């Protein structure tokens, strides 16, 4: 009978060990899940501090252009979201040396595109973005076609959009997912 008491104590200790191990495994899985989610959120909030640079396309000379293409309306739309604290105070109107120097390793570059855009203008910005390996968003006023597209398609960190809402979405998504510094 004594052995029966020892055997019942053994099952109780074994059950306690399984309970502790099971609880430990569940806690480890929860910690890993929370860490995974926190890591993504931390990247997003760190990336919100990144500088956003906007290059407007040269003024369109066509008479059928009804929309002003100075990117001010798009900048105002980005400001209205209250999500992006580091929006520029000014929009670059040309690719002067000083304007291109603003592109650094921790920036997001938005380039306005119209049909009169000279390929050299666009390629200067694209090459500077490639130099620092930063994301580039090409905003096209419903007219993304033509010059320079073979070059941008070779660049893996680009996005093309044609509407204001898509621009907001691309900026948000890029800042939420792009691993700056890697």
Verbal overview:
There is one protein chain. This protein has 182 residues and is α/β, with parallel strands linked by helices. It folds into two domains: 1-47; 48-177, Rossmann fold (3-Layer(aba) Sandwich), CATH 3.40.50.280. Helices cover 52% and strands 10% of the residues. The protein contains six helices and four strands. A four-stranded parallel sheet has the order 1-2-3-4, with helices on both faces. Strand 2, helix 4 (119-132) and strand 3 (136-139) form a beta-alpha-beta unit. The N and C termini lie far apart (68 Å). The model has no long low-confidence stretch (mean pLDDT 81).
Total individual domains: 2
Beta content comes to: 5-15%
CATH superfamily of the largest domain: Cobalamin-binding domain
- Count of alpha and pi helical runs: 6
What is the percent of helical residues?
A: 40-55%
| Structural class by secondary-structure content | alpha/beta
CATH topology of the largest domain: Rossmann fold
End-to-end Cα distance: 68 Å
Strand order across the largest sheet: 1-2-3-4
CATH class of the largest domain: Alpha Beta
Task: Give the low-pLDDT segments.
Answer: none
Reading the helices and strands in chain order gives HEHHEHEHEH
Radius of gyration: 27 Å
Task: Let me know the average pLDDT.
Answer: 81
């Amino acid at each position: 009978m004594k052995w029966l008491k020892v055997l019942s104590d053994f099952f109780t200790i074994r059950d306690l060990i399984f309970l502790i191990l099971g609880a430990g495994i569940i806690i480890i899985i929860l910690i890993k899940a929370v860490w995974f989610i926190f890591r993504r959120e931390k990247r997003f909030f760190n990336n919100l501090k990144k500088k956003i640079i906007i290059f407007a396309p040269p003024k369109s000379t066509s008479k059928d252009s009804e929309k002003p293409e100075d990117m001010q309306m798009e900048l105002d739309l980005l400001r209205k979201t209250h999500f992006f604290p580091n929006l520029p105070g000014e929009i670059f109107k040309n690719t002067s040396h000083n304007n291109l120097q603003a592109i650094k390793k921790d920036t997001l570059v938005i380039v306005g595109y119209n049909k009169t855009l000279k390929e050299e203008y666009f390629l200067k910005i694209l090459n500077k973005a490639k130099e620092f390996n930063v994301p580039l968003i090409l905003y096209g006023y419903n007219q993304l076609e033509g010059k320079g597209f073979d070059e941008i398609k070779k660049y893996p960190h680009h996005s093309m959009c044609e509407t204001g809402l898509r621009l907001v979405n691309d900026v948000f998504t890029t800042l939420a997912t792009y691993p700056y510094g890697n």
